[in-house]
Amino acid sequence: MAKNKEIKTNAMRILEKEKISFICHTYECDEFTDGIQIADMLSLPHEKVYKTLVTIGNSKNYFVFVVPVARELDLKKAAKAVGEKSVSMIHVKDINQVTGYIRGGCTAVGMKKQYVTRLDESARSKDKIYVSGGRIGSQIELKPDDLLKACRGEYADVVVRAGNEI
Asked: Lower Cβ count inside 10 Å, N or C end of the chain?
């Protein structure tokens, strides 16, 4: 469990309340840094670090996707995974209003509202993954199934695959 009380975020409090085991990793950073740079700062393997993306569907409902930092969300697959005709990324300026988090500190756990959430199926084969801790400067390490439990999400194939991937 996280021991450092000064940096406890809403996401961490929810994980503790749900009795979900996690490890908080901190790094020095005052502004948005992309996930690959954060993985490098913390010496974490890129394939285990995931970013949280927020979209809006034709229905005007918001949807959350958690995908590997080095991958791109496939908007067609994402729409299909949530039963929408199409989805598009929300504007950066809307992240805080929609989620309660800021860019670079957005995580699927503890958003202002409970949105439909999909974790890319690549996480299914990982023992642990790393996601934002709910603020810039923190990453949470936890089991993918525990992340899904905390955000009431499901696995789905939602990233663009390279030409040689199955």
From this structure: C
